[in-house]
Amino acid sequence: MIALLDTNVLIRFLTFDKGRKYKRLYAFFESLELGEMKVELKLIVLFQVVFVLKSFYKIPKKHIANSLLDLLKYKGIIIKEKKIIQRTLGLWHDKNVEIVDCYLIACLEKDTQNLLYSYDRDFDKFKINRKEP
């Protein structure tokens, strides 16, 4: 069995939605933090959370990055490519670069043989092999 986490659950938790569901939600995340429960966080959901918090809730990106980095420490939250995602969020926190570009950088920077086809010259600031098609 696989248990997945949806965007709206993360949004409610990260925005401290004090609705009547919050007590159960807080207990749910407490059990995830302790590893008593396990859920998988898909990358698409993580990126959707970033988009919603930034665009709709107008939360500063540094706060979003810090909150998500803290969440990734929860023993019960499983995410594939965890180190890449941590690097992505760290880059996004520190640099004036979009989150998807940070993900591409994090994916490519470890291997000097990798190549990114892009017209975006901002990648040249990083140790990325970029080539225009």
Describe this structure as you would to a colleague.
This protein folds into two domains: 1-80, 3-Layer(aba) Sandwich (Rossmann fold); 81-133, no CATH class. The protein is built from six helices and four strands. The chain has helices at residues 7-14, 22-34, 43-55, 61-71, 82-94, 99-108, and strands at 39-40, 77-78, 116-117, 130-131. The strands form two sheets. It has a two-stranded parallel sheet. Helix 1 crosses helix 3 (43-55), helix 4 (61-71) packs antiparallel against helix 5 (82-94) and helix 5 crosses helix 6 (99-108). The radius of gyration is 16 Å and the shape is elongated.
Entry summary:
This protein has 133 residues and is mainly α. Helix content is 51%, strand content 6%. Helix 3 packs antiparallel against helix 4.
| The CATH top-level class label of the largest domain | Alpha Beta
Gross morphology is elongated
The stretches of 5 or more residues where confidence is low (pLDDT under 50) are: none
- Cα distance, first to last residue? 43 Å
**SSE pattern:** HHEHHEHHEE
The largest pleated sheet is described as: 2 strands, parallel
Helix-residue proportion: 40-55%
Q: How many β-strand runs?
A: 4
Oligomerization state:
single chain
**Which CATH architecture of the largest domain?**
3-Layer(aba) Sandwich
- What is the CATH T-level topology of the largest domain? Rossmann fold
- Corresponding CATH superfamily of the largest domain: 5'-nuclease
**Domain module tally:** 2
Radius of gyration: 16 Å
